Amino acid sequence: MTIYVNAKYPSKQIKIKTRLEALSVSIKLTDREVNVCNIYIYLSNQHAFCFNDINNIIKQIPQPFIITGDFNSHNVRWGPETTDKRGKEIEKILDNDNIVLLNNIEPTRISPIDSAFSNIDLTLANASLSQRLEWKVLPTVTTSDHFPIITQYIPRMNDKNNNTCERWNLKNANWLLYTELLEIEIENIKDKSLIDTDNLVQLLTEAIIKITNIFIEKTN
User: What is the pTM of this model?
Assistant: First the structure.
C-alpha cells in the first residue's frame, strides 16, 4: 500500500495502531492541512473486521480527514443490491453525524472473471470537509480491475490572498428575530409539497439571503 504526495505540498506520516492494513499521512495544502488514510480490508475470514477497527482509526486521525480504500464491503446504501456483514459494520460508522460517505451509486470495480460490477471502494470524510470535496469515478480501467477514483478538494472563493471581499458579520446578529422572520418567509412559499426539490432549494436560498441582507451587516 502506498500514498504518493506531490513534492510541492509538505507532508508527514501519521502513525496509527491498527490490526488492519492502513497507511495515513498529513498533507499541508495552501489553505489548510488535510489528513488522508488509505485502508485495505481483506476478504479472508482471519482478517474480518468490526465497527471498532474503523472507529479506532478515526479516533487516531486528526480532523479534517479523508479515509479511502478497498473495503471489500457491500451495502445497499452505496449501490449493491445486498448488504453483507462487513457492510453492516461500516454502516454503523455512517450513523455518526460527523462521518460522510462521498460515494454515489457508481461501480468502482469490474470483475475480470464475469465482468460484474461492484461498489467496494469507499471514501469517507468528516462532515465539515466533505462539503468541500467532489468525488467521481473515471470510466476506464488500466492495469487494475478497479476504476480510478478522483476526490477533489475545492477551496472557497477568495480564500487565497484576498481580504477585501465582503462577508456577513455574524457576531452581533439578532438570531431570534432572524429565525422568526425566516420562518415567516418560508411559510409564505405556497404549495411546497408540489414543488420539485431543486426549485424548493432555490426558493429557500433566496429567502435566507433576503432576510440576511436586511438584518445582518456586511464587513470587509
Answer: 0.70
**Domains of the chain and any CATH numbers:** 11-153 (3.60.10.10), 167-219 (no CATH)
Query: Tell me: the pLDDT tens digits for 46-89?
Result: 556 788 999 999 999 999 999 999 999 999 999 878 899 999 99
Predicted confidence at residue 96, as pLDDT, reads: 83
187: Cα within 13 Å, side-chain hemisphere: 6
Residue 83: partners with Cβ closer than 8 Å, 6 or more residues away: 74, 75, 76, 77, 91
Residue 161, pLDDT > 70, answer no
- Asked if 66 and 59 count as a contact pair (C-beta separation under 8 A), the reply is no
Q: Find how far residue 18's CA is from the centre of its chain.
A: 23
pLDDT at residue 27 is higher than 90 = yes
Contact status, residue 38 vs residue 23, Cβ threshold 8 Å? yes
Is the preceding peptide bond at 62 cis, omega within 30 degrees of 0? Answer: no
